[in-house]
Write a structure and sequence with these properties.
The complex is a heterodimer of chains A (589) and B (169). Chain A is α/β, with parallel strands linked by helices and 589 residues long. Chain A contains 24 helices and 19 strands. In chain A, the strands form 3 sheets. In chain A, strands 7-13-12-11-8-9-10 form a 7-stranded mixed beta sheet, with helices on both faces. Chain A has a 6-stranded parallel beta sheet with strand order 2-1-3-4-6-5, sandwiched between helices. A 6-stranded parallel beta sheet of chain A has the order 15-14-16-17-19-18, with helices on both faces. Chain B has 2 domains: 2-81 and 152-167, 2-Layer Sandwich (Alpha-Beta Plaits), CATH 3.30.70.260; 83-148, Alpha-Beta Plaits (2-Layer Sandwich). Chain B contains 4 helices and 10 strands. Chain B has helices spanning 15-25, 54-66, 95-107, 129-138; strands at 2-10, 30-37, 43-51, 70-76, 81-92, 111-115, 119-126, 143-148, 152-155, 166-167. Classes of the chains: A alpha/beta (589), B alpha+beta (169). Chains A and B meet through loops of A and helix 1, helix 2, strand 4 and strand 10 of B. Bound molecules: thiamine diphosphate and magnesium ion. The site of thiamine diphosphate has 21 residues of chain A, from helix 18, helix 20 and helix 22.
């Protein structure tokens, strides 16, 4: 068996049935093996490697599994870089496999040779330059575990052409040892999944009813200064004590909560504590929009009640959120005398920007279960929430009140766009976005139902992510209605993947929120550059329907919410793809 | 505050690049760095001295700990470590000044390891502080070039990186 055959068989053995990618000279043998195994493993060839990378990313998110993506050396590999960085920033498990030139040629600037491992050091969890059969065997047997363990993320295996092509006995044994990866729920770090001993936390946290073993510590006022374990370990009781003491707790849910499937636990805890829940962009859709305790999106588009809740709370419970500069107001937290309870599977996130009073470094779902199991002493509390009776608070959508909605003829207000799609697409759908105003609008105003899934580029903010990601998501969950909300700028970046939609027969619904602008940057220019709109106007000349026709897809221009709803209904009923061009005004962010 | 951090890593190609890449992309300031193999052939030890506060130190420990090639991290306390750095300094030295330079070297307990009619190379081992002082003394004679290894350090007594609380992959 050669290296290529080993890779494909190892993927099959690990239960991977789908791979995205693009062929080339150095991966000829890999594609030859894929051909041989075409009945066991589906390879989706995209139009561009970036699309393949985003598709593998979207696939991983939608399947709660892992994405796999192949590319050839040189330009094939460099075309992946944005996709790798995107997966890294959003902690998405993807195994990227690239070919490289023969190992004897490496370092000689040979044709299509790049140091892809070096280029992606800062945006991979780990990577391998497999220059021998033994190295490839080792890489393949660890890649899945590392990508999925603890805080998830992408890994890269770069394989020299001769290693892919050469037969070697190590592959047979290595294959025997490869078994489907079972995620370790404790997972705080790296390959082994758990951070066993640092800070002595593990032992002291044992014996939870749920069998959780997370590292939980109180750090208030302490220093890591020492190698002597300067932070005292404590169990989940420290967290429970904070909850008991808090009068006005506020839960912040991020991508880590979504990745761990902790929506149910967060909802339970919120109800028990009477705590409102706000979410980061990556935490969108974790709780249904209609839940009265779901206050909505944090950051620049935060509603008045989100701002009030974060101003008035006395305890922040941050679950799987990195408190990036996009939620800057929360970073000021330390000085206010209010408390912070932090739960994150990545120990390095703890205390990174704000010092936690108590933290649990471990899987969000497991940690929350542990807390819930021990918080019997906390009676059910009434929601606090800033004098607003939350049960009376209508859904976020209603905040765009009718009077301010777009009236321009032929244009549809974003709120009406979301309502129309919501009605027509049914429940339990996948919603993907691109990057820009339309993205924040979707996170803020789309009414998520319990079984929906939201996929967006949060950390890197990659325009052009949407179509590839939606392709991957649709393939991961073929029976789900998948809707992509994209902007006219983002759509233009990677619309080549319409050919993949067509080739793979995907019933994807693409809604282009067309404002004729690179809206988000246009908005910045309005505010920060004295309305000098430099290079942010797109115009309305592009004929999207004609474009789609050229790809063999249906494109439709709609002029009202009713027309939009009818188009979506038609597409859902026929299980056929459609690209809907809807003109709209995105009112700034 | 200068901190000495020991990092036990896989003795493999590319490991140093991963560690230094992390330091540079996250903006941690390396004051000194030394790498070498250990008594365990599969492992190397990286000793870094970093100027940082307690918050950044904690970040360094756990960000470094996420690298798959990293096994253990230990912060060596300044009062319970022994540390050494080796420096080679080549200085212009004709017959007229040779004697003076040898005297200076003796004061610093440095050794002369190479001597030609025009130049002399001095080897100094110390905990880092002496190096700058010796250099200052030699400058007037004309320093041709110098090289230093970076600081390596170990705990005093039986304590070692094995008892570090920061154990990773
Ligand atoms: C690849 C990439 N290039 C540039 C940007 C900067 N950027 C952020 S939003 C945006 C405008 C997006 O325009 P559009 O897709 O039409 O969305 P809108 O804001 O109009 O809804 C730009 C240029 C980016 N995020 N990604
Ligand atoms: Mg736009």
């Amino acid at each position: 068996m050669n290296g290529a055959e080993f890779i494909v068989r190892a993927l099959i053995r690990q239960g991977q049935k789908t791979v995205f990618g693009y062929p080339g000279g150095t991966v000829l043998s890999l594609y030859d093996s894929l051909y041989r195994h075409r009945k066991e493993i589906r390879h989706v060839r995209t139009a561009h490697e970036q699309g393949a990378a985003h598709a593998a990313d979207g696939f991983a998110r939608a399947s709660a599994g892992i994405g796999v993506c192949f590319a050839t050396s040189g330009p094939g590999a460099t075309n992946l870089v944005t996709g790798i960085a995107n997966a890294f920033m959003d902690s998405v498990p993807v195994v990227f496999i690239t070919g490289n030139v023969e190992h004897a040629l490496i370092g000689t600037d040979s044709f299509q040779e790049v140091d892809i491992v070096g280029m992606t050091l800062g945006v991979t969890k780990h990577s391998w330059a497999a220059r021998s059969a033994a190295m490839l065997a080792d890489a393949m047997s660890r890649a899945f575990g590392i990508a999925l363990g603890g805080r998830k993320g992408p890994v890269l295996i770069d394989v020299a052409k001769d290693v892919l092509e050469g037969d070697d006995p190590v592959y047979g044994e290595a294959l025997e040892r490869i078994v489907p990866y079972v995620p370790d729920v404790i997972g705080a770090q790296g390959a082994r999944g758990a951070l066993d001993t640092p800070l002595g936390g593990r032992g002291e946290c044992g014996g939870l009813d749920t069998g959780v073993e997370a590292e939980a510590c109180v750090t208030a006022g302490q220093d890591v200064d020492a190698g002597s374990g300067g932070m005292a370990g404590q169990d989940v009781d420290g967290a429970v004590r904070l909850l008991e003491e808090a009068k006005r707790p506020l839960i912040i849910a991020g991508g880590g909560a979504v990745a761990s499937g902790a929506g149910g636990e967060i909802t339970k805890l919120a109800r028990k504590l009477g705590a409102p829940v706000c979410h980061t962009l990556m935490g969108t859709g974790l709780m249904p929009s209609g839940d009265p305790l779901n206050f909505g999106l944090l950051g620049q588009m935060a509603s008045a009640r989100v701002r009030a809740a974060s101003d008035e709370c006395d305890l922040l419970i941050v679950v799987g959120a990195r408190l990036s500069n996009k939620v800057a107001d929360l970073r000021e937290f330390g000085a206010s005398g209010r408390k912070l309870l932090q739960i994150d599977s990545d120990r390095a996130e703890i205390n990174k920007v704000v010092r936690a009073d108590v933290y649990i470094a471990g899987d969000a779902k497991a940690a929350l279960r542990g807390i819930l199991a021990r918080s019997g002493g906390i009676g059910e509390r009434k929601p606090w929430c800033c004098g607003v009776d939350v049960r009376e608070t209508p859904g976020e959508n209603d905040e765009i009140d009718a009077a301010t909605r777009t009236v321009k003829k032929g244009y549809v207000d974003p709120a009406d766009i979301f309502d129309a799609v919501r009605r027509a697409a049914g429940e339990g759908i996948t919603v993907a976005t691109d990057v820009g105003c339309h993205q924040l609008y979707t996170a803020r105003y789309f009414r998520f139902e319990p079984e929906d899934r939201f996929i967006t580029s949060g950390g890197l903010g990659t325009m052009g992510f949407g179509l590839g990601a939606a392709v991957g998501a649709q393939i991961a969950a073929p029976d789900r209605v998948t809707v992509l909300f994209t902007g006219d700028g983002s759509f233009l970046m990677n619309l080549n993947e319409l050919s993949t939609v067509r080739n793979e027969g995907l019933p994807l619904i693409v809604v282009v929120l067309r404002n004729g602008q690179l809206g988000m940057v246009h908005e910045m220019q309005r505010k920060l550059c004295g309305r000098r709109y430099s290079q942010t106007s797109l115009g309305m000349k592009l004929n999207i329907s004609a474009l789609c026709r050229a790809f063999g897809l249906r494109g439709a221009r709609v002029r009202s919410a009713a027309e939009l709803e009818a188009e979506v209904r038609k597409a859902v009923a026929a299980r056929e793809p459609v690209v809907i061009d809807v003109r709209t005004i995105l009112r700034g962010v | 505050m200068l901190k000495t951090i020991s990092i036990l890593v896989d003795n493999e190609a590319g490991v140093l690049a991963r560690v230094t890449n992390l330091f540079s992309r996250r903006g941690y300031n390396i004051d000194s760095l030394a790498v070498g193999t250990t008594d365990v052939p599969s492992q190397s030890r990286i000793t870094v001295r970093v100027d940082c506060d307690a918050r950044v130190l904690e970040q360094i420990i756990f960000q470094v700990g996420k690298l798959v090639c990293v096994h253990k991290v230990k912060v060596l306390e300044s009062d319970s470590q022994v540390s050494r750095e080796l420096t080679l300094i080549k200085v212009r030295a004709n017959a007229a000044v040779r004697g003076e330079i040898i005297q200076i070297a003796e004061v610093f307990r440095a050794r002369i390891i190479d001597l030609t009619p025009e130049a002399m190379t001095i080897e100094l081992t110390g905990d880092g502080g002496k190096t700058d002082a010796l250099l200052d003394m030699l400058r007037p004679y004309g320093v041709v070039e110098m090289a230093r290894t970076g600081i390596v350090a170990l705990d005093r007594g039986l304590a070692s990186i094995s008892d570090s609380p920061y154990i990773f992959n």
